[in-house]
Structure formats: structure tokens, C-alpha cells
């Protein structure tokens, strides 16, 4: 039994509990009143999981790893409208200094919706995707 227990750390050493995830930046929006920014990312953790859409808020004067996740959602098993790169349809815009608005597909499944980060207020609007009408 003691020998078996001594092998457990070796077996776990090769495991990454969080899994091999990659992120692609889809949009960067800069706060007009400060050095804050919002990043819209597509997080892909492999073939056995669905992609997740993440919005993080950070400051240019800090390390990017200090950016705070404020929004996390997925496509709700194919129900939500998709945007670029496998993300759910999402639009991130600063409506004024320190005020971030995140528009996202109304049928998305949300896991996180923070109301403030890095001194900014964050608001949300679940909506259908919109686009400018075609030019005649």
C-alpha cells in the first residue's frame, strides 16, 4: 500500500487539472477616460468542451495577467447566435469614461457577470445580434 501511495504524486505530476486552454483575442476596446481596456476572447479548451466567450477588464499600466474576468458565457448547446471565431455574438463598447456595456446573444448561457472591475462599472444587455442595414 505504501508503495502504491508513493506512485500517486508521479501520476498526478503529468496531469494539468485546468487543461490545455488557448485564447484568441477577438476585440479590444479602450476606455476613453483612462488606461482601462476590455478584451473579448474566445477560450478553447479542447475537442471535448465547447468554446467559451470571455470579457476581461484591465489597465494598460498593469500586467495583462491582472485583468479581471467580468463576463463568461457559452453558446448554450448551440442555441446562441455565434460571432467571429466561435465566440457567442458579443459586442463590447465603452459608453463613457468608466462605463462598459457588454451586449451578448440573448440565448447564451452565462456563468459570470460582474458589475464592476478596475474602477469601471459594467452593464449588460442580452439581445439578438444586430448589424447595419446594407447600403442600397
Q: How many domains is the backbone divided into?
A: 1
The helix-and-strand class reads mainly beta
Name the helix and strand elements from N-terminus to C-terminus, one letter apiece: HEEEEEEEEE
Shape: globular
Unreliable stretches: 1-18
The largest sheet has its strands arranged as: 1-2-3-4-7
Organism: Sphingomonas immobilis
Protein name: Lipoprotein
Layout of helices and strands:
Blueprint: H1 2-13, E1 22-30, E2 36-44, E3 52-59, E4 68-74, E5 90-96, E6 99-105, E7 109-113, E8 116-117, E9 120-127
Parallel strand pairs: 6-9
Antiparallel strand pairs: 1-2, 2-3, 3-4, 4-7, 5-6, 8-9
Summed up, what is this model?
By secondary structure, the chain is mainly β. Helices cover 9% and strands 46% of the residues.
Please describe what this structure looks like.
The protein is mainly beta. The protein has one domain. The chain contains 1 helix and 9 strands. The protein has one helix at residues 2-13, and strands at residues 22-30, 36-44, 52-59, 68-74, 90-96, 99-105, 109-113, 116-117, 120-127. The protein has a 5-stranded antiparallel β-sheet, with no helix packed on it. It has a 4-stranded mixed β-sheet with strand order 5-6-9-8, with no helix packed on it. The model is unreliable at 1-18 (pLDDT under 50). This is Lipoprotein.
Q: Any key phrases for this structure?
A:
single chain, 136 residues, mainly beta, five-stranded antiparallel beta sheet, four-stranded mixed beta sheet, 9% helix, globular
Amino acid at each position: 500500500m505504501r508503495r502504491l501511495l508513493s506512485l500517486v504524486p508521479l501520476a498526478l505530476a503529468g496531469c494539468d487539472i485546468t487543461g490545455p486552454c488557448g485564447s484568441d483575442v477577438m476585440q479590444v476596446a479602450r476606455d476613453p477616460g483612462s488606461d482601462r481596456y476590455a478584451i473579448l476572447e474566445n477560450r478553447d479548451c479542447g475537442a471535448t468542451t465547447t468554446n467559451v466567450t470571455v470579457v476581461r477588464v484591465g489597465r494598460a499600466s498593469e500586467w495583462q495577467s491582472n485583468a479581471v474576468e467580468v463576463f463568461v458565457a457559452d453558446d448554450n448547446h448551440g442555441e446562441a447566435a455565434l460571432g467571429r471565431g466561435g465566440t457567442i455574438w458579443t459586442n463590447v463598447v465603452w459608453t463613457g469614461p468608466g462605463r462598459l456595456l457588454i451586449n451578448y446573444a440573448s440565448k447564451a448561457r452565462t456563468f459570470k457577470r460582474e458589475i464592476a472591475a478596475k474602477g469601471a462599472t459594467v452593464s449588460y444587455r442580452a439581445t439578438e445580434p444586430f448589424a447595419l442595414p446594407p447600403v442600397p
